[in-house]
Description:
- With about 240 residues, this protein is α/β, with parallel strands linked by helices.
- The chain has a domain at about 1-25 and about 75-115 and about 165-245: Rossmann fold (3-Layer(aba) Sandwich), CATH 3.40.50.1220.
- It has eleven helices and nine strands.
- The longest helix has 17 residues, at about 55-70.
- The structure holds 2'-O-acetyl adenosine-5-diphosphoribose (OAD).
Amino acid sequence: MSIADEIKRARRTVALTGAGISAESGLGTFRGKDGLWSKYDPASVASIESFAQDPRKFWNFAREIGWIFINAKPNPAHIALAELEAMRQLDAVVTQNVDGLQQRAGSRRVIEIHGNAGRIICTRCLAKYSTEKMVDRLSQQDVPTCERCGGPLKPDVVLFGEPLPKKELDLAVKKMRSADLLLAVGTSLEVYPAASLPEVARKSGAKIVSIDSKRTSWDNLCDYKISGPAGEILPRIVQAIKIIF
Ligand code: OAD
């Protein structure tokens, strides 16, 4: 059966996305030869311990990659998932990405389990700010501070060593349990607990489709594996569904 047929037949399809869905928007992935973690050691620039020890170093790194996020635009893969949702063929997107590109493409039900770089949080009083509105402060201060309490600010994203936001993780698990089809797009699934989500869906009886440009270590869990760029494959699936209707 084609993936379009599987989606059409499914009662509830849920997507799980990773950095690969944003690769065609010019955002680098984390692993692999050209991945971010081949240039930087995540333990020393993206862990909560490193932030606590040397927030200046963390912010130098965050500023260096931040402009890429600000300038990125949704690509055809993000738009295809938004279209699937609008066609009532996709219940929700659970994403490990912090770029907000799926919402900008039009997706409404997006569960962000690793936070969103479009927000800044005060590590002391937990006040939240829009990153866009804080751009001056972020570029002027080595370690930006909260305008209310003076505490150190941090992007509202999950760093290594931090727990995932409970509400979002619970909702993600619920979505996995309720799905009978899981579309995993552009994720190596090497980071837990996100990496265990397909197993949750699988145990609840879901079929699993992986769309990824390369082989991944979890391919054996998939019922279907489609290799190639998500920005080409997902729009083709959407086109095929439109023909079936
Ligand atoms: P990874 O970099 O680990 O994996 C990205 C996946 O996308 C790989 O399997 C690539 O083969 C695939 N890929 C690359 N380009 C693609 C394209 N155009 N179309 C389809 N697939 C493509 O990224 P994630 O799995 O998202 O966490 O990484 C998970 C977490 O690790 C991130 O959320 C982040 C990171 O450390 C934290 O920072 C907490």
